[in-house]
Amino acid sequence: MKPLTRQQTTRLRHLLDQREAATRTALAREGAQRSNESFSELATPVGDEGERASAQQAMDENLAMTAHLVRELGAVAQARVRLDVGKYGVCVDCHRDISFPRLLACPTAQRCEHCQTIHDRTYGQESHPSM
Ligand SMILES: [Zn+2]
Question: Which fold has domain 6-123?
Fold first, then answer.
């Protein structure tokens, strides 16, 4: 494999920093939103079946979003570790290089486009936010 140039690595590290900052901001916002909601309308024990269901759904969506953001932070941290140990940009499945444009679009990518397509088809599309 040909290693990424220092310039490319610097750019990708910068992208990871940006992504982490954006994710932390979103996570803080989710947390603030949830504590506001849950103590007012969401946790209100009265209300008909439909209201309770929609309150439950709102909480589920919040939790799903929070879980997604936490996974995203984990993905950024893992990408940094891969950068540090020199394994960044190598597909975990076929061990070929992940193209630089793909890394720019998705700096936390662990698979090349080919293997990602197979993976998505096998396990469904999760945790790959489009940018
Ligand atoms: Zn691959």
Answer: Four Helix Bundle (Hemerythrin (Met), subunit A) (1.20.120)
Q: pLDDT tens digit string along 42-90? A: 555 667 888 888 888 888 888 999 999 999 999 999 999 999 998 999 9
C-alpha 116 – ligand 1 centre gap (Å): 7
DSSP string, the chain: -PPPPHHHHHHHHHHHHHHHHHHHHHHHHHHHHHHHHIIIIIT-S-S-HHHHHHHHHHHHHHHHHHHHHHHHHHHHHHHHHHHHHT-TTB-TTT-PBPPHHHHHH-TT--S-HHHHHHHHHHH---S----
Residues in the 5 Å CB sphere of ion ligand 1: 91, 93-94, 112, 115
pLDDT digits (tens, 9 = 90+) for 90-122: 999 999 999 999 999 999 999 999 999 999 999
